[in-house]
User: Fold these one by one.
Assistant:
Number 1:
Amino acid sequence: MSRLSPTPLAAALSVALHLATPAAAQAANAGSVARHDPGHDAVPAPVAATAAADAPDLAQIRSLQPIKVEAQSLRDAWLHDHAAVGPLGVQSLRDIPQSVTVLDAALLQSQGVSALADALRNVPGITLGGAEGGQIGNNINLRGFSARTDIYLDGMRDRGQYYRDVFDLSSVQVLEGPASMLFGRGSTGGVINQVSKVPEARAFGSFSATTANPEGTRLSTDVNQPLSTTAAFRINAFAQDIHSTRDVLHNRDGGIAPSLRLGMGTDTEITLSALLQRNRDMPDYGLPPLNGHPAAVDTNNFYGLTDDRTIQRVAIFDARLMHRFSDALSFHNQLRWGSYTTDARETGASSIVTAAGTTLNRAQGNPTSLPLDQLYVQLGSHDRVIHDRALGDQAELEARFDTGAIAHTLVTGIELGRDRYVNQASSRSGLPLLSLLDPAQLPQPASATTTPGNAALGHASTAAVYANDIVQLDPHWQFVGGLRRDRFAADLWNTTSQPAYAQQKVYFTSVRGGFIWQPDERQSYYASYGTSFDPSLETLTVVNGMQDLAPEQNRSLEVGGKWNLAEDALALTAALFEVQKTNARTQISPGVYTLDGNVRVRGLNLGLVGNITRGWQLFAGYTLLDARIVKALDGTQGKVPANTPRNAATLWSTWQVGRHWRAGIGAQWQSLRYAANNNVVSAPGYAVYNGMLGYDTGPYSVQLNVFNLGDRRYFVSLIPSDGGRSVPGIGRTLQMTFSYRY
């Protein structure tokens, strides 16, 4: 399970439940799965479009294999032939010359997934990590590069640092490889696009209640109500109180997401939506390193304080307009305002100290030959209050026309944005010294003192124009080409850190190009090239010595194929790629950086998804990452980039057993990873197995998910700070979900 208790949003949830009348069984515990409804032959839109393609295409976006679904079946639409990746709206996967993975809500429901981080473990090219200076929110590495600022919601940047839930998502879509032409700054390894649920023309609803061992409860609901033949309202909500197998850790989270859709089926459609979420989570900075590895202690050990907390409030409001002038010309506009607030008082292992009072060298992975019972952990604080605001607008025009025998689909657009970021840091002294082997569970001592630290205030503005053309040269050949011109300007003020003021203005032209050969409807082969850029002030945080540097530049080459097999019941993908950061920032001396670095990642992606037989579904992937810091001046040359396993694979498969029963089993595997670029601290590889058993009868269903079947010790994420910490994954956990739907 993932994370809010009913307390902060009980009223909102009760309203949603009241609207549900009888509610329908949907997501097993995520509250985000719109499963097939008996009596309705349409699957819930597996891809909710971005502003570029919400209404007219939704009815056509279905799984590749039309399936007549019975009430007890779980043959849901894992398989997709379209995705909404960026401002270009809904596109056929065959026409996208890059690797794309679509995680459908039905897939996540069968896995019992409710957190975005858990959903992304289905993509073997993704690893989880911590942000600079601490772990807040979803911090992700994709193809060996940080994607913390490359998380999107309905095609627009979702810049806040918070723990995302899938309760209002119809799918999660991952586009791999540099894509600044589509998304602007960032996107070195790719982007993650969350696709929200949208109101539909039919009435339906669902309610799910989940309980877990160890202690945990979650309630979720999804209600859709047509208001007329052209209007509908939908509301999703969840609340949860979750405890981890690690004794002290717990999360109390909740959220509500209403949406109103007007003008469905007409030439002009407006969609208004909001996402309101509150998290009160227990931060986890994991285990400290010892002799270059996670300390060999009980993974239940907690090196923090029992009254630590991370409180987050998220409010996102969207207004989307789509107007169709004709079948060949349409206009799309999306306006978003987002507010993200974080109040974090977080404590973690800062250093390891011997009984004699000697501090071990954390830069060398805390080497020692002393027994564990003679070592102690000095706690350190990671406290901050963050206020993050973002206002953005994206407008585009899509035109379809011919030049002689050549067909064009041309998308031109403008993006404008304004961000404001305030971060007040503080530090605490007088924190306790804990036993490494058997740490006591203590609240903050009364003698601890708090000292205000640096207050950073940042502003950034974005302005961009772009154009992308899909050129159909003949029935078998396509060319995809695009250009984007970005202007990014940022100002940053500090109260105690130096420099006291930093300013940066960046202009960059991103390109994207690819050829696609489709000999028939079931084969597609492509070769593509793309670029991206990373300004040093992109995150509006302190970057001493980097503020005057030009942006880092990235380029990608990829060749691959996409095949529909078994009469379109299975989809197979394969790709070879190289991503290179050609002028990576590298440190010459303390506070002095230059753009003389080079980081290169070569790799292989394989994916297989769909129906092997009528009742047997499969989702599988494998990624090989040959990653290397080719050039650096800070001693990391020749090393492997942080948090980048050479091999990673994922598997999930379900079977329909008779009319009512279904079962599933899956595995996630990763090889060794390093906590930081210096490769001093490493976390071992692991394989974790999960299982599922479900029973469906009429509108009711019950589902049991078992996570970490073998109760395996493994580390789910790595944090580079303080020598390199490793956060343990959960132990064996049982989760039971009861659902009702209409």
Number 2:
Amino acid sequence: MKQSQGRFPSPAAQQLVHLHKNLYVNRHDPKYHEKVIRYLDPHSPEAHYRLGQHFDQKGLKSKALYHYKQSMKVYPSPYYYQASGAIRRLEQNAAAGAATASGTIAGPTPEQRAERAFPLFLKVLVMTLFMINIALLFIFFAPSAISKAVTVLSPFTVGKSVTYESVEKPFLLHFPHGEPNRKVEDALHQKAIKLAEAYPNAHIVIYGIASSAAGAEQKAVPLTNDDWKRQAFVVAEYNPAIDQAVKIRFVHPELTAVGANIVRTALNAYISEHGTAPPRLDDLLQDYPNNYMSFLPAEGQSGSALVRTFFNGSGGWVYDREAADAERMFYPNTEPGDEPIRYTPVQLVVEAAQHSLELRTGDRPIARYRIGLGSDSTPTPTGSFTVGNRVIEPEGRSPGVYGAAALSLGSIAIHGTTDVSSIGRSVSLGCIRLSNEEMASLYPLTPRGAQVVIVPAEPGGTASANVAAADAWAPAPAVAADSTAPTPALTEALMLGARSQSGPLKPVETAKGNLFHWLG
């Protein structure tokens, strides 16, 4: 939802979540999580977990179990372990109840219950009075501690808005280089819970740093220098006063630049076809054939994909359709680093001699794939092309001929195939083939308008010579012979964003009823 740019924006607007087209819902709506599942994300782990809690409290165990199990289907998720614990508790309670019903656990007789009723009442009364006295002693004699601060107190025509925030406690935790993500998640989860016990009124934030000196026993130490934050590859946050989940976010420095240029490439394609920028960024995420992108990448520093029309440094993105070019039209809503993010369009470079395809922006490689090409009698054309229509599961002259997805280049396409034996060989009718699994990975990362450079194979030429030949075919930066290899973690982070996005911003990219006639 676009927020007012006035001096005093409505406090209610901050509680509204855009679910579908003109449908917004308040976060405090009793049906909020049900509406999230219905209109935004049917697989939301948080929404299913909260609904599980709701039905659990009402005693509706079967419904609670259903939503807890749905929450566990998304992994990794901050609600995975909580849902697992809740399921284990419900199943243990059910087993105990069954045992009682079958007579294995003998319950008290009516006479015994009558005898225990009065003593139990006295016990509860005495315990309640004792706890009240302890609480009064603590209030009057305990030292005062600053645990919360009023951060907003804005007068409006009716009422006022007050926000309380816990004091943030930042910590630093070192991990060995190459530590598996699962081990990192488990360690951060355990450390956050222990630190919350030691600092019960604090918002715990742990910054994970990769270090060759990390020992077997990992200790979280207070963060005294903010420079360490920029070196963190993972951040964990835990504030039990607000949310029982430990939120873990892996940070990829290149994610912001790559995500920005995916969107900018799609923006330029839209402008080229319509003569003007789209009124809203959502217009790039429409159903086929207007699916310029498959998803909106998250901004790497904050992990947010929220788009604003003005800059305030709160994370996510800024979209200003009145700007002069794509670089100034779309940029991260964070404080700028040492260098601004330059616009380098998404580019696919096909090395015919190596039977490989590399996805990149400028000189930054993102992913590399093994491909199949045209035969000697029906060779794949060389030169510079532009990605046009993007379609999932395209229909051709025979079922599945174009595989999982396709990127149209005119008479040919980059598409998937079930014939994995053709990968790494020159046997197609001219199209560029990838395995269905790798095509499903490449497709969402390639926007409409991406440049495709097909470098001819030089007989006896080296890989570097063939790659350098891209200069003769495209105005975009050439593929450098000494460029670094693609980073698997970067590709994994981008794909995680593509998989997690659903609901109204997830376009329908199939083209039912359309028959495609690429060379194959």
Number 3:
Amino acid sequence: MPLAQVTRRQFLKISAATSGALAAGLAVPGFDSWRTAAAAEAEEERIPTICEMCGVKCGVIAVVRGGRVVRLEGNPDHPLSRGRLCARGNAGMMSLYDPDRLREPLKRNPDGSFVPISWDQAIAEIGEKLKSIRERYGPEALVFAVHPELIAPWEKRFCDAFGTPNFSSHAPTCYSHRTAAYVATYGALPAVDYANVRYLISPGRNHLGGVKNNDLQKLAQAKAAGAKFVVLDPRYSEFAAWATEWLPIRPGTDGAFLLALMNVLVEEDLYDRDFVAARTAGFAELREAVKQYTPEWAAGVTDVPAETIRRVARELAAARPAAAVDPCWHGGLGSMYYNGFQAARAAACLNALLGNLGAKGGLVFPASVKLGSIDDLGPKPPKPAAPRFDGAGGPRWPLAKDLGMIHTLPEAIETGKPYPIKAAIISHFNPVRSCPDSRRWLQALRKLELVVVIDVQMSDTATAADYVLPESHYLERSDPVWVTGDTVALRRPAVAPLHNTLPEDEILRRLAEAVGIGEYFTFTLEEYNDALLRPLGLTTADLEKAGVVRVPVQPPNYDRLKTPSGKVELRSEAVARAGGSPVPAWEPPLVEPKEGEFRLLHGHVAVHTHTASQNNPYLHALMPENELWIHPDPAGRLGIRDGDLVEVASVTGSERLRAKVTAGIRPDCVWMAHGFGCLSRAQRRAYGKGANDSGLVPIRVAPISGAAAQCEVVVTVRKVGG
């Protein structure tokens, strides 16, 4: 059928055929069947490894009996877990023993169904197709899209060896604005010394929703010591409820609030004069720029009273340098709003006015560990000659160089510009539901000659693939070494693979051979890790025994930053060259709801990770579907009561879910948790549960960073059932 005519009903029919190919999974034992008498009586083994239930990569201890994982614990020696795990980390073994797991390579039939094939057949056929595409269109016709995990250096090496510049991650849907703004201002991305912070402003980051284990433990430590947390969020999030103060700011106006704080600091002489004079560049221009952004002006923009803005600014200044504006992902500074780059720049410059860089409780750069080179393991692939398909790093998007704009792939496929894209390899990533406009993504992927998905489960994106390659679960495999702070750790297998799966290093090695670039992958994973560890006097075998090793580090250099001036650049020429205001400036959000409309917001919750965990038995039991948060006032006008089924509609589609009527959200907004509304029948618990926010969001490209601006969407809501 023509791609433009693929309907949701037809897609679900194809998805049903997919689940038929996996029907044998019904005979695969679930977790309870592993609880045999022999396992119960077996001696307990404790294996240190690394979690992959989210992107944080905490150190875990896998407790194994009789060859079966019986529980997971936080590794007390690893700095990211410190003996504790979140709900997702604890649930990792359930994804290992999930009967819905992918268990063997699959190939799509012409009718859309999938059939099992051997690894040899899959690799050979994919290799031939990739070679043909490279010969006919050039190597840049391949896009490799990932949610970057530990194997990312191998994926990037594969791209270089193949000759494509198009290695892309999920950055524009998460943190592009923040990262581009801080790199332009500080030369690198700092973090907050959460354990010692005394005053923290969080522009939309929900620490108790998008849980980062180590950060949350440190924030709890700071709160116990009397720290004050101020949360800017249109919704009464979990972190807002835990914080000292919640300011229900108008969506997309965080930048105005931060500019007004700078106005107060400068006009009332509350900033760190010594730091600004010695370690920043461009203060004179910034000072002139912020004069117009008074608290009274900001109050009209943000709905936060002027007296509140002044009080927060004075409290912030009183706590410096142990005071900070959180360099958030998501929220007002991440990738959610069209104006988020300038908001993130305002946050970066405001931090500089507090003189908190390198200070206890302020912004800190991580120490670095000097790893070895793999150059003696074989030839280094040449850098690809072609420009990226999305223009990242080019004249129009210079600050997006390392971030990319993967959400623009459908347009590139549809138009053939700047050149034809004909193949995609997608790993640890589900863009059909993680990127805006699910329908457009599905239609675009069907236009490609080759789509290969590497995953542990049949994701929505996998149902649109030509080949699905099952990766071994993180508890079944090793990966490249993981360095965080002064700690080096190793993911090592806790159990042997349960199914006919492979780790991705082996998948890439075999694909490289099939494509004719095998000379760049002549080493094993162990040899790769040994080469990296050599300057530290360690080997893979050492890490297998110890699990976690503390190593010497190089402290960060705060005196000479990686900016052209070597200082914090309050005025950035790099931003000016990219087409933005060189000093932080107010830019309004892109859309504004009219009477009877709402701005649609979405976010994360503590028990799920993106679209990856909704089929996990433990986590599904905790939260099987999402709800639409709506304020009582508009709900009353629309006749909506708590628990009613409602339809949310936007320019890209409509979704149905249950209403949560609550005063914990502004009347001009509605909110839903991201990651639900699974379209893959092969995920039998998650399928059809809740609503898919990505189906409501159009594809947009925000200025400077290229972020996806996913909260720049207006919707209508109506009741459709009780």
